[in-house]
Write a structure and sequence with these properties.
The complex is a heterodimer of chains A (425) and B (303). Chain A is α+β, with helices and mostly antiparallel strands and 425 residues long. Chain A is 32% helix and 30% strand. Chain B is 27% helix and 24% strand. Chain B has eight helices and eleven strands. The chains are: A alpha+beta (425), B alpha+beta (303). At the A-B interface, β17 of A face loops of B.
């Protein structure tokens, strides 16, 4: 069983009449230090086998190779399966509507089945996810995780259908999404990955796929906990403005609240390995009088019914402006990182629509924020899209000759944040 | 955990000063409104002992050295010419809100006895029966919810009506009454406990009974789930001046026999006032360990 620890960063002082309480809570899991029983895992790799995967031909070959690498990373005994997706979903291995325990034999059989894959047909991602959900459902009590690979847009399904599928599958399994090439839609995969609490990324070159799949599967195998929720208690009369994960990646959890009782809600965080994540909680409380102290929130990590760690978010009203106007460093930093992500997404959107004034303003702001916060990774991606004249003021020029892959990389990775003083990602 | 799921007893009957929600002893913030809870009073001598000195009668209730709160309570009234009504209760610590139960029971029973003692037409045994019924009614009212499996709020009760030279004692549970004068030291009550019942039925020797902690479990108490039974009473008309002592087990555990308790009193200066006697006995219990709350009421009787 992993040990969780928390740290809370905030300026608890509020001015008279102030009601907004912000705090950054850092949650660290030791990943059980390897000694305890890991939750029984179930893994599915979903490979896009639509016609476009055959052009160039090495795309499907790379996908086959990457899936084999991923299968090799699955530990003995963990259940697994492979799905091939076109306008319909098909179980490639096993084919009997279940998942099989990983062993030398089943891994070899799966790889053999992969060799028979051909690229032909359309793209209906919702149906792929539905089949994954059905297969996972045959493995109750497992920690379920999928890798979804696609190279195109969800052409054979309506957005509404996909939304309906995601609503149904939320909480049933975790799904990391990967787009290969540049013909897929970032917003679409982001929608899937955020609903299913996974990551999203671009694989620009097919030959990078295997390494990425290896890393994804190794991370999945390193998860030492089952489902963990972030539980937030707030006082009567308070309201939660937002709860978002802000590091390593921004994920807005506000809409994912599951009410436990009128004053308490759970936000899903899925599984944890040995890792550390930061959360930004913003709570509006009824203002108090000078000198009043209030517990504005209690953040706990709960696994099942067990509270594994907790942090207190406080509010204290003062007439000392020196105290109340101070913005906590961590809160300021992550507020900036969230704005950075927003500016990139809005800037790219504006650029696509031909609104170059807005695009210049937003991406300029993004450059300034990335530079100030030392988010070198994002800065580098920005520089592929804009020419930076002065990072400190955010003076930029939009580049004319932007490669689609650079634009998509920037969009996909816009939510990757840095911690204070940590420099490059 | 929801606010409904709070054991009000461990909050010492405390409630949030901002919103009135029940508080839990370890709470630093109110679970309903989040308000900071003022620091609980730090235990000091003044806060851990309550004394009432009414000259011819006095009572001391001491938290003892181990428990974090006092679950004993007493009620003492002197009316007219040497009429005394006294009640001593011991909240049952395995129950929820034992302290509130004891306080409510002592107040309710004491109020009934206070009226009765001033009314010469009222039969003392009847008054005690009424008082104990009032105590049961009061304890049933105690508000509590529980999150761990604990029994309903309940307490023991020992009471006395002293009118002229007549004393009537009534009790439920194992809080005791003693009579001490210059020739005798006598326990007036018989504990409602498995030990005493065992001795009474000839199943146990007093020595065996004294050794078994289980046998200290009481068989009757004041509370909603108490077995039905008319209260036990005993009356006496002393021939010589002496002292009536009512106490909880926090004292008698350290001086189990009437003789031993009598010797403690005899060691005090001749003619020591009731308050001095009560204080000295409570101090002795603390000196010997103070493992429980200690309540002692002393009434001077001069027939």
């Amino acid at each position: 069983m992993s040990t969780f620890t928390t740290e809370c960063y905030q300026n608890e002082y509020l001015p008279l009449g102030g009601s907004e309480v912000n705090a950054i809570v850092t949650v660290t899991s030791d990943g059980a230090a390897g000694e305890t029983i890991q939750p029984e895992a179930a893994e599915i790799v979903i490979v896009d086998t639509s016609g476009s995967m055959g052009a160039p031909r090495r795309k499907l070959e790379a996908a086959r190779e990457a899936t084999s690498v991923a299968i090799d990373c699955i530990r003995d005994g963990a259940a697994f399966g492979v799905i091939a997706g076109t306008e319909v979903a098909r179980a490639v291995y096993p084919t009997d509507g279940t998942l099989v325990p990983a062993s030398a034999r089943t891994r070899a059989e799966a790889k053999k089945a992969l060799r028979r894959l051909t690229a032909q047909g359309g793209t209906a991602i919702g149906s792929w996810l539905t089949l994954a959900g059905t297969l996972f459902a045959t493995m109750p009590g497992r920690s379920c995780h999928a890798i979804l690979l696609t190279d195109g847009e969800n052409q054979h399904e309506s957005d509404e259908h996909l939304d309906g599928v995601l609503a149904e599958l939320e909480g049933q399994f975790q799904c990391d999404c990967r787009g290969v090439g540049t013909d897929w839609r970032v917003s679409e995969l982001r929608r899937i990955s955020s609903a299913l609490l996974g990551s999203v990324d671009i694989i620009a070159k097919p030959e990078d796929m295997a390494e990425d799949f290896r890393a994804l599967m190794q991370t999945a195998m390193g998860k030492a906990t089952g489902d963990v929720a972030l539980r937030l208690w707030t006082p009567q009369g308070a309201s939660v403005a937002f709860v978002r994960q802000v590091a390593p990646v921004i994920v807005d959890l506000t809409g994912r609240a599951v009410q436990v009782n009128p004053q308490t809600a759970d936000y899903p965080t899925a599984t944890w390995g040995s890792e550390s994540r930061d959360y930004h909680v913003c709570i509006n409380v009824p203002p108090g009088a000078v000198g009043d102290e209030m517990l504005a929130g209690r953040v706990s990590l709960v696994e099942g019914d067990e509270t594994r760690a907790q942090a207190l978010v406080k509010a204290m009203w003062t007439d000392d402006q020196q105290l109340s106007t101070r913005i906590n460093r961590e809160v300021a930093h992550y507020t900036g990182q969230a704005e950075l992500a927003e500016c990139i997404q809005e800037g790219l959107e504006a650029r696509k629509e031909g609104d170059l004034a807005t695009a210049t303003f937003k991406l300029g702001r993004a450059v300034k924020l990335a530079s100030e916060s030392g988010n070198d990774g994002t800065m580098k991606l920005l520089q592929a899209v804009v020419d930076v004249d002065d990072a400190a003021t955010g003076t930029i020029r939009l580049r004319q000759d932007v490669a689609t892959v650079d634009e998509m990389s920037l969009d996909t990775r816009s939510t990757i944040t840095v911690r204070i003083g940590s420099g490059a990602t | 955990m929801s606010t409904e799921d709070v054991d009000v007893s461990t909050g010492d009957g405390l409630s949030c000063s901002s919103c009135g929600a029940p508080l839990h002893a370890e709470d630093r913030f109110c679970e309903r409104c989040g308000a900071r809870i003022d620091k609980p009073p730090t235990p000091d001598a003044a806060a851990t002992r309550i004394e009432l000195d009414l000259a011819i009668a006095a009572a001391v209730s001491d938290q003892g050295l181990v428990h974090h709160r006092n679950e004993d309570s007493f009620h003492l009234e002197v009316t007219g010419d040497r009429n005394v009504a006294v009640v001593v209760c011991d909240g049952i610590s395995s129950a929820s809100a034992g302290n509130v139960a004891a306080r409510n029971a002592a107040t309710a029973a004491g109020t009934v006895l206070g009226k009765a003692v001033a009314d010469p037409a009222k039969d003392p045994s009847e008054a005690i029966a009424d008082a104990i019924q009032a105590a049961v009614d009061a304890v049933i009212q105690v508000e509590w919810t529980t999150r761990v499996k604990r029994v309903d709020p309940s307490c023991t009760l020992v009471s006395a009506v002293c009118r002229g030279g007549d004393i009537t004692v009534g009790w439920v549970g194992d809080s005791r009454a003693y009579w001490f004068d210059r020739v005798e030291a006598r326990q007036l009550t018989v504990d409602d406990s498995f030990a005493e019942e065992g001795i009474a039925k000839g199943l146990l020797t007093p020595e065996q009974a004294a050794k078994s902690p289980f046998l200290h479990s009481i068989t009757h108490w004041v509370g909603p789930d108490a077995p039905e039974r008319p209260p036990r009473t005993v009356s006496l008309r002393p021939e010589r001046p002496g002292r009536l002592v009512l106490c909880t087990d926090g004292l008698w555990n350290y001086a189990p026999s009437a003789g031993e308790l009598g010797r403690l009193i005899d060691a005090l200066p001749h003619g020591a006032a009731p308050a001095a006697v009560a204080r000295a006995l409570a101090d002795t219990a603390n000196e010997r360990g103070g493992h429980d709350n200690i309540t002692v009421a002393v009434v001077n009787i001069d027939p």
